[in-house]
Amino acid sequence: MKKLLLVASVVLMGVGVNAQEFRFGPKAGFAMSTMKIDDKQDDLGARKMSPKYTFYVGGMAEYKINDNFGLQAEVLYSPLGAKEKIDGINAGVVFVGEQTKVELGTILVPVSAKYFFTENISVAAGANFGVILTAKQKTVIGSDFINVGVVDEENNSGEIDIKKDIKKLNIAPFVGVEYMLENGLFFDARYSLGVSNLSNDGSGGKVTNSFAQIGVGFKFGGN
């Protein structure tokens, strides 16, 4: 993680003291995270898990090289992951269903190049370097003799640590757009496509994590 933070800092500092404009500040927002599993990873076959709606929070720094181009680096925290509901099979009088939630506590270091159409509107493209600090999975399996289709959480539930089965680095290229007001308040949206195989359980399968973010922040500094 220290190496990733150092790389992000060097990328920005490399622009030099002659940069036209430097801004920094906090940002936070809403994230929608999904996970994709191939057919080698799980007996249920290839599939995309349902979105996990979560948050992110952190800070950003931006060097504007000239009127049209700039560089930006951020450090964010987000509990990414996904969830899944598998319908049960009615075997006589017993109904069994399953709900699974995966949470990946991740430090994100997005580094991007920006193009400014105007002083207020810009687009960005870059990569998210995610360091997975924690990985947990909670599965609820239930049986109900009367209410078919309802998972009984008290029947069988528990959270397990799956960190050893998940690789630490999640690289996700992204594109985004930003709108900033004159006072420094800005709004942005981006989509990050997970390309790293996170599976570390020896199955030979592939698991990826992609996510979308919508947020707000404030930039201090400037000319």
Q: How would you describe this structure to a colleague?
A:
- Helices cover 5% and strands 63% of the residues.
- The chain is mainly beta and 223 residues long.
- It has a single domain, classed as Porin, CATH 2.40.160.20.
- Strands 1-3-4-5-6-8-9-10 form an 8-stranded antiparallel beta barrel.
- It is elongated, with a radius of gyration of 21 Å.
- Residues 14-19 and 144-156 have low confidence and may be disordered.
List the SSEs and their pairings.
Layout: H1 2-13, E1 21-37, E2 47-48, E3 52-64, E4 69-91, E5 94-116, E6 121-143, E7 157-161, E8 169-180, E9 185-192, E10 207-218, E11 220-221
Antiparallel strand pairs: 1-2, 1-3, 1-10, 1-11, 3-4, 4-5, 5-6, 6-7, 6-8, 8-9, 9-10
Task: Name a few traits of the molecule.
single chain, 223 residues, mainly beta, Porin, eight-stranded antiparallel β-barrel, 11 strands, 5% helix, 63% strand, elongated, PorT family protein, OMP/PagP_B-barrel
Distance between the termini: 32 Å
Write down the overall mean pLDDT.
84
Per the principal axes of the C-alpha atoms, what is the gross shape? elongated
Tell me the name of the CATH class: Mainly Beta
**Looking across the biggest beta sheet, what order are the strands in?**
1-3-4-5-6-8-9-10
Radius of gyration over all CA atoms, rounded: 21 Å
Number of strands: 11
- Secondary-structure element series: HEEEEEEEEEEE
- Helical percent range? under 10%
Poorly predicted tracts of residues: 14-19, 144-156
DSSP strand content: over 45%
Largest sheet: 8 strands, antiparallel, barrel
Number of structurally distinct domains: 1
The third-level CATH topology is Porin
| Second rung of CATH, namely the architecture | Beta Barrel
Which class best fits the helix and strand makeup?
A: mainly beta
- Treating each run of at least 4 consecutive H or I residues as one helix, how many helices? 1
